[in-house]
Amino acid sequence: MKSLKSAVMESYRDSKKIEVIIQEGKSKTYSTKNTLGEKVRIQMENILQDRLADSIDLQTQAKQAHWNVKGPSFIALHELFDKIAEESEEYPDLIAERIVQFGGVAEGTIQVVANRSSLPEYPLVLTTGQEHVEAFSHALAVYGELVRVTIKQAAELDDPATADILTQISRSVDKNLWFIEAHHQAEK
C-alpha cells in the first residue's frame, strides 16, 4: 500500500517521465482522433491507471466487508456494503473507458491492482460491524481523497471531461462514506 503523499509524488515523477516515453516512442497507445494533446493523454492515462487499481480494490473491499460482517447490525451493514459494492462497480468502468478513449490500454488485472493500489490493505480478521465500518470508512476516505487529487490534476492538465467523470465518482464516494460513518457515529 502506498501512502497518499507517496502516491501523489509518484504520479508527479511519472508525469516527468512522459516526455521521455513520448520522445522514445515507447508509449503503448493506439491512434486516436481525440483532440487532447498526446502528452496530456499519456499523463492522464498514467494517473488514471492508479485510480483504476484503487477503484477495483475499493470494490473488493466492500465485498469483503459484505461477506464477513457479523453482529447486531448485521443485516443493515450486510445490505449497505453490498449496495456500495454494486455502486462502486461503475467507478472502474468509467475510469477504464476513459483510459481507452485516450488510446491507452486499461490495466485492471488482479496482479496489477495488487501492485498498484494506494488504498490501505483491508484486514481479513475483522468480524464485528464496527470493525468493518471503521476499516471500510477509512478506505472510502482515502479513495475519496485520491479521486479529489486526480480531479485537480485533470483540471491542471486542462482535461475537463476527465475531471467531470471523477467528480461524479467523488460525489458517490462522499455519499457512501456518509452512509457508512452514520453507523459509527451513532455508537459514540
Protein architecture, described:
By secondary structure, the chain is mainly alpha-helical. The chain has one domain (4-13, 37-185): Ferritin, core subunit, four-helix bundle (Ferritin), CATH 1.20.1260. It has 7 helices and no strands. Helix 1 runs antiparallel to helix 2, helix 2 packs across helix 5 (110-116) and helix 4 (90-101) packs antiparallel against helix 7 (160-185). It is elongated, with a radius of gyration of 18 Å. The two termini are 30 Å apart.
Features:
mainly alpha; 188 residues; Ferritin; elongated
Present the secondary structure layout.
Layout: H1 4-24, H2 38-68, H3 74-88, H4 90-101, H5 110-116, H6 129-156, H7 160-185
How many DSSP H or I helices? 7
Alpha carbon gyration radius: 18 Å
Estimate percent helicity. Answer: over 70%
Beta-strand residue fraction: under 5%
Number of strands: 0
The CATH architecture: Up-down Bundle
What's the shape? Answer: elongated
CATH topology: Ferritin
Given helix and strand content, the structural type is mainly alpha
Counting structural domains, the number is 1
Query: Going by CATH, what is the homologous superfamily?
Result: Ferritin, core subunit, four-helix bundle
Indicate the low-confidence ranges by residue numbers: 18-26
Largest sheet: none
Helix-strand pattern, N to C?
A: HHHHHHH
What is the top-level CATH class?
Mainly Alpha
The mean pLDDT is 88
Query: What is the distance, rounded to the nearest whole angstrom, between the alpha carbons of the first and last residues?
Result: 30 Å
